[in-house]
Amino acid sequence: MDMEEIVRDVTALLTAYGLKLVGGIVILIVGWTLSSWGGRAISRISRRTTRIDPTIITFLSSAVRYGIVGFTILALLAQFGVETTSIIAVLGAVSIAVGLALQGTLSHFASGVMLLLFRPFKVGDDIEVAGQGGTVKAITLFTTELSMADNVLLILPNGAVWGSVIKNFSAHRTRRVDLTLGIGYDNDIDRVMELVRQTIAADPRPLAAPAPQVVTGALTEMAVQVIVRVWVNTSDYWAFRFDLIRALKQRFDAEGVAIPLAQHMTHNGAP
To answer: By C-alpha distance, which of 200, 206, 266 is closest to 233?
Structure first.
């Protein structure tokens, strides 16, 4: 083969594949640029709202970026004449198989996305969910971590969390302390209720609005029920509740207010 034939073959090869090579390079550059731009755009748009957790922002950004890269690779293969239909079919079949194998895991993942998107609670909130209560320590795409009152770490799958009733005790700035007191029938009910009001007023933590309520609840066999409802800041809830119970017991003892005890009767043989 002489030089003239080599030049002719190279010219034919460049003519046949030169435009495809240039087109492939253009597709690669455009796809790579769009993937970077798309990831950053999703991050900027998502960060404009505080309702979307940073974890899901990172995930969405990565998903968009890698999705564009995947389409770029398919377009590049098609540019050089590779049949992509069969590749897409194989990828689809593999995705279905993986999805069925990881059905439970994907359910937790989907629930994690919903938790991070709608944010029924956040890190630091005190919640009760799936029959468990504690302080939220972390929310990931697959699990929610709670620190229980005895400092035990509880890890719940997000599927169980999203599918359960969620009580968020930290969602509002204020909470109501509810107590039910049992007072003996020999006591002056008006005097007892005034003692309760005075005990509440002596503490600076109760809120003026809504005003504290001290009302008669029910007449039982053993006692007259007095219902106490006091609004406080959420951060003061437990400390005030404990202190109020102790203060009421001390005030009742000092004022001679009788609290009836349950009577237990034991029968020997038939009554």
So the answer is: 206
Distances (CA, A) of 156 to 106, 130, 152: 15, 9, 13
Question: Locate tokens 């069925």: which residue?
Answer: 100
Which residue in this structure is represented by tokens 């293969």?
Answer: 77
The rounded distance, in Å, linking the Cα atoms of 177 and 170 is: 14
Q: How far apart are the first and last CA of the chain?
A: 123
Domains of the chain from N-terminus onward: 3-101 (1.10.287.1260), 120-168 (2.30.30.60), 174-255 (3.30.70.100)
Q: Is 19 helix (H, G, I), strand (E, B) or coil?
A: helix
pLDDT digits (tens, 9 = 90+) for 206-241: 999 999 999 998 898 889 999 999 999 999 999 999
Q: How far apart are CA 140 and CA 116, in angstroms?
A: 8
Tokens read off for 171? 């969602």
pTM over 0.85: no
Distance CA 159, CA 108 (A): 4
Residue matched to tokens 């202190």: 243
Q: What is the pLDDT of residues 33-86, one digit of tens each?
A: 887 787 777 777 766 666 666 666 666 777 777 778 878 887 777 776 666 676
Please give the DSSP secondary-structure letter assigned to residue 219.
E
